[in-house]
Amino acid sequence: MKQKEIVSGFVQLGKLMCALGENEDWKDFNIGVTESEYEQLQGIINRQVAYNGWFTKENVRKSLLNLGLQLTEEKLTAWTSNYGFSTDPKRVGIIMAGNIPLVGFHDFLCVLIAGHIAVAKLSSNDKTLLPALAQHLVEFTPGLKDRIEFSTGRIGKIDAVIATGSNNSIKYFEEYFGKYPHIFRKNRTSVAVLDGTEEPEHLRRLGEDVFAYFGLGCRNVSHLFVPESFELNRFFEAIVDHGEIIHNNKYGNNYDYQRAVYLMNQIPLLDNNFVLLRESSDLFSPLAMLHFERYSDLNEVKERLEREVENIQVVVGKEFEAFGSAQCPSLSDYADGVDVMSWLETI
Residue 153 — very low, low, confident or very high, per pLDDT cuts 50/70/90? Predict the structure, then answer.
């Protein structure tokens, strides 16, 4: 099959995902599904929180919209023009994480649009959304029917593999899949660098980088570099609109636990009743907590970022990625900086 057909299918899927993400009412068949099918997808979105307490309908819709906005003909055509298209499809295993909704979608897109077969092992935390979308993708592009396989158990025959997990899972990836061409991903986090001249709107957007998806993604900011004289109350004031997050039971339980542990150990914390700030040089922070580190020389911060490149997914700040954009990657923003499309050309 031709790449143009696959692009066309994803363009139509993008329209559907945007409609779902915006929580629009069904209007007509322009989004590619009947009213009944659309209502079924809405039901799947609403039920996610029953399967995974972190997958609120708001977060599922956020993910659908962010992904759907990338699936335009213009963006997909420009992106794929930089790569070849395989006429010898390989079976590419995709071991998907389940920390945020549809976190494995980009790998799924890359494998299919490069001309290969996606053999996806779904996370038990996110096992219904992608199959539901793929069902309609196949309706839009029937030629993909034999190029998509899903499982939640043992993965089938593969020629190469993309595996996303934790630092602990890397050794298992190496043991089971090390003999295949592979991309293995482990824990990463994201950081923000403030210079003290940020407007309230910049800090408000930074709040989105911190709290989107409850802070569970590797693109979520967990560490702030701030100037020596920076008043942290400025940050607290700018993020007050995110206070509703504490009403999620799972997030609230994490907040209560972390607060109790640190107070019992008499470790100083700043607290605004929905997130804890702790001064620490550790880039990784517990859920419901944000680490901050004061600096006097921005060049030293940049040197630190270079040393920590293997642990950092995104850096936001005036000289870096825009505030509020961390969880809105473009098609060419590859996880861990590894160009999946170029890698797929080599297998």
Answer: confident
